Amino acid sequence: MNTASTSPVTGSTARADALLSAFAGAGYQQAAPAILQPAEPFLDLSGEDIRKGLYLTTDPNGEDLCLRPDLTIPVARDYLASAHAGRLGNFCYLGPVFRFRGGKPSEFMQAGVESFGRSDRAAADAEMMALALEATSSFGIRDLDIRSGDAALFMALIDALKLAPVWRRRLIKCFNRKTSITAEVENLTQGAGQSDYEGVLAALAGSDRKAALALVTDLMSIAGTENVGGRTTAEIADRFLEQSTLKGGTLARETLTLIERYLTIAGEPDEALAQLRNLTADAGINVNAALDEFENRIGFMAARGIDTGRIAFSASFGRGLDYYTGFEFEIRRINNGGEPLAGGGRYDDLLTRLGSASPIPAVGFSVWIDALTKAGDAA
């Protein structure tokens, strides 16, 4: 009997532990958030895929709880609750997360890093990509499909078009979904059709978000419920307010055409940058700050030895998580259309939405140990 042989499980654990040590060696302190978490942040701030996959329960006091489906929000919550909140904080983690995937219950290991409070955003973004690529390399994976996008560029475009706040929220929600962005945007030209809630929509005509939230809160209180289908009162109010505004008219055709042209831009980062500068110059809109940040990020990636020509940038790329505000990326094995090996990005608004009194820059990424192990074994 060969006692030196290593089982797949043992080998995977050893490589995961080595990965965590590598993150620590890069200056990241290990975090260990509780497995049981308040459900509200995930219901309010995560993407639809995570919301649908939550394991939910209720404690004796009536608070909705869940098994953590991801580690970004738990690490951020612990950071805000610590004495170091608001200061530079770099954390790494390794542990199980729980959610339904593919209609089946699943527990799987996730590792990653989160960085809070760094003002050098472009350099921090590049560091996330570099560490994620090092993580895949540590599992012996070389043939990679690297995809990236930038939510900040899309937001800058929408802001430059000076759209009404409700239209801005609707378009950004469309962008954050992983389904066809162009099809979603095109649907806006049709306006809002007949609704089962015409009375509510009429009452909200001309209202702001505060008034909409108050009305929906009253209606749900009368109905004796706090959420519907896992959606919070705030989400329902936003949806009603959007429908009310959409009934008032559609976006101008030239606005939609410009957005659709933007969403078709793709290629290597340097090529995409040139296309973006040409598009915005032709349209006479100023998004130079966002484009300069994009260009700086490319430079910092190259300085870290990343071959940016391997990165496939797409203006329509998004990871399906509502809290991303800038750079986003996913890494997969080439010719493997399954789950990503790694993914992450910038989420500068998340800590404010979790209760921080002032904005705190934040960026991070996660890797999926089971996917890395499977891809590494097949390499």
Q: Concise description?
A:
This protein is of the alpha+beta class.
Mean pLDDT: 84
| Coarse shape | globular
Helix-strand sequence: HEEHHEEHEEHEHHHHHEEHHEHHEEEHEH
Q: Main β-sheet, in a few words?
A: 9 strands, mixed
The CATH C-level name of the largest domain is: Alpha Beta
Name the strands of the widest sheet in spatial order.
1-5-6-14-13-12-7-11-10
Describe what this molecule looks like in 3D.
With 379 residues, this protein is of the alpha+beta class. It folds into two domains: 8-158 and 256-378, BirA Bifunctional Protein, domain 2 (2-Layer Sandwich); 164-251, no CATH class. Helices cover 47% and strands 20% of the residues. It has 16 helices and 14 strands. The strands form three sheets. The chain has a nine-stranded mixed sheet. Helix 8 packs antiparallel against helix 12. The longest helix is centred in the first third of the chain and has 18 residues, at 8-25.
List keywords for this structure.
single chain; 379 residues; alpha+beta; BirA Bifunctional Protein, domain 2; 2 domains; 9-stranded mixed sheet; 3-stranded antiparallel sheet; 20% strand; globular
